[in-house]
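User: I'm new to structure prediction. If I give you an amino acid sequence, what do you actually give back? Let's try with this one:
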Amino acid sequence: MNIEISKKEYRTLLDVLHIADWVLHAYKTEEGPETEEFRVLEQKFLSLAEDMGFGHFVEYDAEMKKYFPTGEYEETSSVMDAIVDYDNECFWDELTERLATRDLIQQEGKDKVMAMDFEERMIKMETLQGRYEEEFERQRLNRLVIKE
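Assistant: Good question. You get back a string of structure tokens that encode the predicted 3D arrangement of the chain. For your 148 residues, that looks like this:
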């Protein structure tokens, strides 16, 4: 199968690949076999940068035998802004959900929470999460304290 893409689409594809690579590898020290197919496909598309007119955005490291985004790409792409926004939203969502889960288990007991039907648990969680969401919207982390 052949797929024809425009230069603009290729530029967008570079961003998509960068986002995916960040999600898959940003917090890992090694690239595992579970992402090998992605890495192979990413390298295939990065190798086409010169032909697509984006050689200034991708460089080849002969020692590592891999293509990488250049500093120019990273400086001119808005991808990291989108990733930072996403990470920020995830942080607050995860924090409120985990605190609400902790509180619900403390209030009801783990066995009772596990036995609740989905709707009942979600209603109780939403109430607890709402309390944290309001607090964090007003105070951010200013009043969050770890007690000994």
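You can read the tokens as a compact description of the fold. Here is one thing that stands out. The helical segments are 7-25, 36-46, 71-76, 79-108, 110-115, 118-139.
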